[in-house]
Amino acid sequence: MKKIKLAIIGVGRWGVHLLRNFLAHPQVDVVAIVDPSLAKLTTVKERFHLDDNILLITEWQSIKNIPQLTAVAIATPASTHYDLIKDYLQSGYHILAEKPLTLDPEECRELCELAEYQEIILMVDHTYLFHPAVEKGQQVVQSGQLGNLRYGYATRTHLGPVRQDVDALWDLAIHDIAIFNTWLGMLPIKVKAKGTVWLQEQSNLADLVWVTLTYPNNFQAYIHLCWLNTDKQRRLGLVGSQGSLIFDEMSATSPLSFIHGEFAQEGDVFIPINQNQEVLDIGKSEPLAKVCDCFVNCVLNSTPSLVSSGWVGRELVEILTALTKSLQEDGKSVKITNG
Length: 339
Fold this sequence. Notes:
8 helices, 9-stranded mixed β-sheet, 6-stranded parallel β-sheet
């Protein structure tokens, strides 16, 4: 069985999940873990009962001394991504990066072009794109079962954690934007965002953000984001003339449902008909495990990911950048070139 040798860069909250999945993957040898914190390295060694032959390193450049290292999984703060990824790509390593790819769309473009030039895999862990509910939802939408699409909406609220490096827009919006883009099979052409700051006025980090995405056919999706709302919601819907498709993460029994219903017109009266709720079978699998498996297969087969490539990551960063501009201009509409 062909295997890849992989190093994990960063074992914070998300990095430990990457480590767990790659340790369990039959085609991966985790050969090194890098984190500036010796305490974190000690913790993961004990938690995962790591073999002594797995190197625990505090300097990220030290992995270049590892023979036959194939790939690197990066789970460090987004502000560090550009320098790390560029250096590792130039060293010939395949890269799986935590989202967002970087904080700047032009940096993203440069990294994607470098990966193509080096003939190296650059993939971003947009885990929702591997969620069975999102995959099934994409099939439903693109089959036309919803009829004529009318609008979309999403709510992503909770009480913390409150970030001090980015606002609620950059912390939360990327998930729902990725799902809408995937379900619709297109990218927004203009965006708007308005926000409110309560907790961190000095740094002007919005705690509440309202987003509007406008797509080429004038379809619009609306997103409500907040990290100081005790009503925790992870809900996204797409409304069509034949019903609504609902992805509700907080529902343990029916995370994806198709609520059928339409109108029959009698004169000036619109009468609801054909109403029923269908719970869709989505199967069970961990999205991050599928991300890691996709990355391994991409590396072994020298084939870029069709779902979550670096270019997909660049598109999402470009949208977030346009939304930030709109937020700074109090909700002014900002066009996106998608170029």
